[in-house]
Amino acid sequence: MLNITRLLCGVPTPGDDLRYGERKTDGTRAEPVHAKPVVVWNITRRCNLRCVHCYSSSVDSLYPGELSTTQAKSVLEDLSCFGIPVVLFSGGEPTTRLDLPDLVQYAAQLGLRPVLSTNGTLLTSDLVGCLYEAGLRRIGISLDGLGPTNDAFRGKDGAFEAALSGIRESIRGGMRLSLRVTLTTRTVRSLPGLFDLAEQEGIPRFCIYHLAYAGRGRKLLPFDLSHEDRRRTVEYIFDRTLQSASNGIGLEVLTVDNHADGAHLLMWSARHAPDRVGPALRLLRRNGGNTAGKGIACIDNVGDVHPDQFWWTQTVGNVLERPFSEIWTDPDIDLLAKLRDRKAFLPKRCSECRWLDICNGNLRVRAESATRDLWSSDPACYLTEGEIRV
Hints:
Elements: E1 2-3, H1 4-9, H2 16-20, E2 38-42, H3 69-82, E3 86-90, H4 100-109, E4 113-118, H5 125-134, E5 138-142, H6 148-154, H7 159-172, E6 176-183, H8 191-201, E7 205-210, H9 227-246, E8 252-256, H10 260-272, H11 277-287, E9 296-299, E10 304-306, E11 317-318, H12 324-328, H13 334-340, H14 348-351, H15 356-359, H16 364-371, H17 385-388
Parallel strand pairs: 2-3, 2-9, 3-4, 4-5, 5-6, 6-7, 7-8
Antiparallel strand pairs: 1-8, 9-10, 10-11
Helix pairs in contact: 3-4, 4-5, 9-10, 10-11
């Protein structure tokens, strides 16, 4: 996750302590970056929508074997004792679980930082108020276009208006809201309109995801952006970020799941904002690029543990059989060991790339899905051969 606003504008934003290991607001030094993972927890696989890019391939039905409230609370206790910084409740659609407020409250009581990732369509004033009272302060809501574009992408008429209502209820309810969109050839035309929407609605944060070829998203590979379109889109994001800052709006803009964006930002800044190259490079090196298996982890609806939220084809344990903390610190789990020191396993294009220390080989699940080799090149890397050579 690259904080374009911080990198291009130098404006600190919430969450920078996780990305860069900076001093906290109380003046104390944060832990080293990625010392403990952010845990994405898909507490249910059930969803009221049927998004074409869903990495969990969710549908609106009951899934057997999902963790009970009691089991979920035991997992939260272990995560708290282990010292993870954030637990992100996701799905499926997490608001379909009636015990969500109870789980949020328990996480907050344990000292965890709870975050909610939702499609927003089920968020009412009462539910937002209940979640706020439970201790939730941050919500991410996904839109993949405006109006009919979003509805077609999400498999349900009226999904856009329902999500927009959820956005407004969340802001009125005191939540810090993140708007999220996934880039494909179907959604990229809506990007200017979504920027406008974020600014008009007073949404403080806009996260723009590159497509991960996972779950139903594997079928969207032909609809992913070409390297040329991806480059133009990322540059548009840079321009809109600077425009928002200069207009005094100050939208926090992030790109997610493609660390080639960091290298491109540095090269783009050398031409357009040379004073930001040094500070941005230092921040990107502190962050270190993709952290699947180290700085990010996933627990799915039945308790299986994965290296990141998209990578359900790779499982390293189950929290019903063994605590997450033990799984994550087990030196004998081969995949985790390789992901944490991956240079020797990456393809030559990555291992000899001059940007390796800020990219770390990019998204491995995308490489595996596209080539059946998790150590091949990420096909979404749009840097040219000339750009990656020293």
